[in-house]
């Protein structure tokens, strides 16, 4: 029997109380007429109704990103019924940790505890979660670790408060993400065999692909334009304050190329189908991370052309209620779908994560399997 890996526990953590659309401005600041106009337009288009921030009403950070990650991991460990000491590996994904150095995974491990373990920090944006999953699954399949934990965690709110925009060169592409992103963490336990007491999710395959050779930078921080040249990054300015005033410490998005991202993602999905990795007639569930419901509609239209009469109930997202939490989103959505009884034994699940950073995509195919039978 070929070596494989299974997701045996899932967890998530969303900080604080849910924040509705009408409450976002009071939390992040920025109530002038122009900002309000931008906020209303973006929120009405993305479909998000509420999100969560690790930030109080005074704009003060209430928890570290590493704390969000640990809460989610502990939730997944509890779901599986094991402890941090049972882990051999910890793979962590985030857009930006709390510190420049050391790596995010080292900080999460230090707070989580447990024993000696391999750690990996997967840097990037949204698809870094699939990179972390791929690494953990590969190590478990190789037999190097019987158990691993994977977590995607984001604390974007620190970048989004009005104080980050006051006295800074105005960039509309920074306002776009300001009203899109929020905080949270999602985690999974990976093991070499199914759990004995409940169904597990077998990891059939994981695929990642970068199209950076064909595209300029799209989502970025630390760079003014879409191309990096020597002397042009935030570290090359006379001091950090000057770089911040120029807007280089804001998270920015080239919105005009997002249609290209959707088209490229669909092309990658079509390739999976053509290679036989995805059988659309037997695919029971799709969990896709996206930033706006408009992307979902584009995908529905494309899939309907391929599969006439496609049942859109196969599609699951909690973007509207949990917000866009970047690298954490795919695990937060998977956890909710699993916890609410959406899956049954024998069903298949496709995880899909497009990343606009410089056009990369992550996919994973899962199958729901019955509990492990005892040998007795």
From TrEMBL:
Keywords: Acyltransferase, Transferase. GO terms for biological process: fatty acid biosynthetic process; secondary metabolite biosynthetic process. Residues 280-352 form the Beta-ketoacyl-[acyl-carrier-protein] synthase III C-terminal domain. Gene3D superfamilies: 3.40.47.10. Residues 125-193 form the Beta-ketoacyl-[acyl-carrier-protein] synthase III N-terminal domain. The keyword Transferase applies. GO terms for molecular function: 3-oxoacyl-[acyl-carrier-protein] synthase activity. InterPro entries: ACP_syn_III_C, ACP_syn_III_N, Thiolase-like. PANTHER family: 3-OXOACYL-[ACYL-CARRIER-PROTEIN] SYNTHASE 3, ACYL-COA:ACYL-COA ALKYLTRANSFERASE. This is 3-oxoacyl-[acyl-carrier-protein] synthase-3.
């Amino acid at each position: 029997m070929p070596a494989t890996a299974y997701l045996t526990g899932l967890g998530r953590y969303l900080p604080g109380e849910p924040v509705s659309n009408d409450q976002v401005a009071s939390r992040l600041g920025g109530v002038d007429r122009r900002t309000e106009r931008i906020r209303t337009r973006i929120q009405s288009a993305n479909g998000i109704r509420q999100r969560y921030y690790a930030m109080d009403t005074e704009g003060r950070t209430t928890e570290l990103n590493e704390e969000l990650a640990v809460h989610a991991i502990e939730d997944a460990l509890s779901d599986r019924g094991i402890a941090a000491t049972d882990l051999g590996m910890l793979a962590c994904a985030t857009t930006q940790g709390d510190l420049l150095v050391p790596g995010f995974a080292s900080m999460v491990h230090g707070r989580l505890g447990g024993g000696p373990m391999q750690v990996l920090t997967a840097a990037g944006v949204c698809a870094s979660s699939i990179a972390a999953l791929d690494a953990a699954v590969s190590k478990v399949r190789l037999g190097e670790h019987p158990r691993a934990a994977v977590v995607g965690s984001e604390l974007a709110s620190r970048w989004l408060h009005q104080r980050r925009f006051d006295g800074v060169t105005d960039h509309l592409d920074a306002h776009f993400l300001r009203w899109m992103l929020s905080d949270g963490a999602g985690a999974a336990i990976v093991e070499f065999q199914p759990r004995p007491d409940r169904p597990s999710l077998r990891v059939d395959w994981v695929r990642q692909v970068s199209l950076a050779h064909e595209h300029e930078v799209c989502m970025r921080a630390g760079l003014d334009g879409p191309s990096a040249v020597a002397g042009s990054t935030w570290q090359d300015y006379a001091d950090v304050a000057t770089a911040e005033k120029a807007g280089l410490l804001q998270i920015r998005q080239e919105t005009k190329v997002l249609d290209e991202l959707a088209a490229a993602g669909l092309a990658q999905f079509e390739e999976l189908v053509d290679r036989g990795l995805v059988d659309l007639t037997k695919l029971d569930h799709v969990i896709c991370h996206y930033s706006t419901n408009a992307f979902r509609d584009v995908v529905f239209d494309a899939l309907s052309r391929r599969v006439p009469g496609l049942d859109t109930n196969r599609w699951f997202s909690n973007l509207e209620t949990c917000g866009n939490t970047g690298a954490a989103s795919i695990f937060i959505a998977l956890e909710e779908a699993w916890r609410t009884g959406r899956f049954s034994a024998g069903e298949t699940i496709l995880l899909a994560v497009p990343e606009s950073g410089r056009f990369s995509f992550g996919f994973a195919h899962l199958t729901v399997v019955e509990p492990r039978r005892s040998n007795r």
